[in-house]
Amino acid sequence: MNAKEISLEEKAVKPVVDHLNDLLANYHIHYQKLRGCHWNVKGQSFFTLHVKFEELYTAALTTIDELAERILTLGKPPYSTFKDYIGTSTLKEIQTIGLKDTDMVKAIIEDMATLIEMERELLEITDKAGDDGTNDMVNRFMQFKEKNTWMLRSFVNED
Q1: pTM of full prediction above 0.85
Q2: Which domains does the chain have, with CATH numbers?
Q3: What is the CA 41 to chain-centroid distance, rounded?
Q4: Is 55:119 a contact under the CB 8 Å cutoff?
Q5: Taking the C-alpha atoms of 74, 77, 78 and 79 in order, what is their torsion angle to the nearest 10 degrees?
Q6: How far is residue 34's CA from residue 52's CA, in Å, rounded to a whole number?
Q7: How far apart are CA 124 and CA 56, in angstroms?
Q8: Three-class SS of residue 159?
Q9: What are 79-126's pLDDT values in tens digits?
């Protein structure tokens, strides 16, 4: 399949796919960081954060799948190796074992800010390509993170 089959220009779709793969790689690092936070959170906020981190990693996993399937819909292959994810991602892994609960939250806030910035750039690219399907999908992802960023910032008194 190629982009023409869904009424998009192949040339215009290439930067969309490139940025979707970048976003996919970053989401994999974000997902694993959330899993580490979920597994390793301790302290008085355990019950609150354990549930919140699970909610966020479940959403990230769904996002990963949607990103990969959108790339395939556009007729291209999604990244699918850890080597690709680690080599491409601007987000970096962190050691969550022994990390203070509020530092975990701050690390997730930083990730979300980076992802939102990437998504805003992607929205401009999808707009130029006339790719409303990708635009709608990415906008949904961004709105979810914007709301959760506000909640997490309120949790650590940084609102």
Answers
A1: yes
A2: 7-156 (1.20.1260.10)
A3: 21
A4: no
A5: -150
A6: 10
A7: 26
A8: coil
A9: 999 999 999 999 999 999 999 999 999 999 999 999 999 999 999 999
